[in-house]
Amino acid sequence: MDQAEVNAEVTGLTARNSDAEARRICIRFREVTHRFGPRSVLENISAEVHTGQVGIITGSNGSGKSTLLRVAAGLLTPMAGEVEIQVDGRTLCPDDRRSAIGLVAPDLTLYRELTGAENLSFFARLRGIDPTREMLIEALTEVGLRGRGRDMVSGYSSGMRQRLKYAFAMLGRPPILMLDEPTANLDVEGIAMVERVVAIQKARPDGGIVLVATNEPRETAWGIPLIQLEATR
Amino acid sequence: MSGNTAANSSVNNAGISVGNQAAVKAANWLPQAIALYKKDILAETRTRVAINSVGLFAFASLFLLTLATRGLGEVQSIRILSLPLHGITLADVEKAQIPAWTGPSKLGLLWVLLCFAAFAGLAHGFVHEEEAGTGTALRLTMNPQAVYVGKLSFNLTLLSLIAVLVTPFYMGLTGMHAGAWPAFLVVMLGGCLGLGSTATIIAVLASKARGSGALFGAIGLPIIVVFLMLLLNAANTLYNAEATTMRMVQDFGGLMSFGVLLISVSAFTFKFVWEE
After folding, report:
1. Which of B78, B120, B136, B174 sits in a 20 to 30 Å window from B32, CA-based?
2. What per-residue confidence (pLDDT) applies to A12?
3. Does B18 fall in a domain?
4. Is residue B112 part of a domain?
5. Based on C-alpha coordinates, what's the Rg of chain A?
6. Within a domain: B126
7. Which 3 state secondary structure label does DSSP give B74?
8. Helix (H, G, I), strand (E, B) or coil at A55
């Protein structure tokens, strides 16, 4: 992504949200350890990522990147250690943490028996938003799915489902985005969309953080190396 | 940048968002539960997986049961004097009446039928969420209590619907009478509440164990045994014309309390089962 264009976009965003005040957000991994049966996946992982940063988690297949992201999202309780999320010095409770995180991951699936718009409408309500038709069209347009909102998700291609996950993840503008294999199944335009999302989230005037678990060299260049995991036995 | 400008500005304008304020406060659990209930109803009207499973099982069992019990007649009275009385006591005669095809046994069998029908279909809600991978999205966005209330409401609705459809057929085919209608309705309501709450909490246990319907039945058996015992007590009282008010309160109240107690305990413990 061309940095000048990103900056221009960010400027536009700033202009539209000039009254927003940046929050101090911090995700703190404290000696996180987790095992699946006898196999140790994470061992004493400690790191911090702050407002405006894109933290990159890398590691070979099976090294625990997805597991670490699940722990950070509060979907998995580690066997030892903790992941603390603070906003303006206040540690978020599990309920607030849910509202503060948007996740895109391979094992996260949306309802195949519902349409794209119905999925977004349902999850918007879960996030406490009363969705209007315009909002849904806008959200679908932003991820390149305009005109496909009435189609069943079961009829979507894998790339379209990935795009819909982005629309889902960004419902309610959560300040923290967690992306696991962020460009999986996406075409060139889809990858560009993800890059825009990351750049905008990073530069949000009201404060934003992105955590990315990846092995793709192009994606590792989006932010700072946060955690390098190694496959353990 | 490879994307188009129009799309870019659209991203900026909305911040890929629905709403202007970034969220850090949790949504209320009740609207979440209602949204999940509505979503399940919508999905069910499209797939009809649960209603087909429960309905097919219930009506197939009903048909087989009718065939199997066709020759049985309800014992109304025994003419003691005409019996050969050598060595037979009144206790023997009363004992002989117990397995008879009476009101309580018919009602008990109806609920055994509904139990298996429920086991065939009500596990679907949670098992499907886990197998399809949508459970992750729910965990990420919903308060656990809201998930429980939403799923319980859906299961209770489905079970009540099946009970309303199956019971009249069952009554017609087996000749089961309702007894006192208000009391009968209380027993049916208590039954739906108890069975629905049992099926819901067992379903989440089975889904977390990546289990199937067979596992569902195995895990549910200890709770179902207690439920059926309470239900049979209530059925005996329902068809006992000499039952005292105290006995009615005790047995009907016991049945209702089972459902209420199980829902209360499940609501508190659900979080620990649901979250990994």
Report:
1. B120
2. 32
3. no
4. yes
5. 17
6. yes
7. coil
8. strand
Residue B67 lies in domain: 29-274
| Predicted confidence (pLDDT) per residue in A186-230, tens digit | 999 999 999 999 999 999 988 899 999 999 999 999 999 999 998
What pTM did the predictor assign? 0.83
Interface test with A, best of B9, B10, B17 (most A CBs within 10 A): B17
Q: Phi/psi class of residue A92: alpha, beta or left (left: φ > 0; alpha: ψ in -120 to 50)?
A: beta
Calculate mean pLDDT across residues B41-63: 87
Give the number of other Cβ atoms within 10 Å of residue B107's Cβ: 29
- The amino acid that residue B124 corresponds to is H
Domain count, chain B: 1
Name the residue with tokens 């509440």. B193
Of B18, B47, B141, the CB nearest to A98: B141
Is the CB of B140 less than 8 angstroms away from the CB of A75? yes
Q: Which of residues 137-166 of B touch A (CB under 8 A)?
A: 137-143
In this structure, the number of other CB atoms found within 10 A of the CB of residue B214 comes to 10
Residue B7 has pLDDT above 80, yes or no: no
B12 assigned to some structural domain: no
Render pLDDT for A79-89 as a digit per residue (tens, 0 to 9): 999 999 998 88
* Of A217, A222, A230, A201, the residue nearest A68 (C-alpha): A230
Query: Tell me: the pLDDT tens digits for A201-213?
Result: 999 988 899 999 9
Residue B263 in this model has a pLDDT that exceeds 90: yes
3-state helix, strand, coil in chain B (%, to 5): 75, 0, 25
Q: Phi and psi of B59, rounded to 5°?
A: -75, -35
Residues with Cβ < 8 Å from A123, sequence gap 6 or more? A110, A168, A171, B137, B141
ipTM above 0.90, yes or no: no
Q: Quick one: pLDDT band at residue B79, thresholds 50, 70, 90?
A: low
Q: Which of A113, A114, A195 to mutate to test the interface with B (most CBs of B within 10 A)?
A: A113
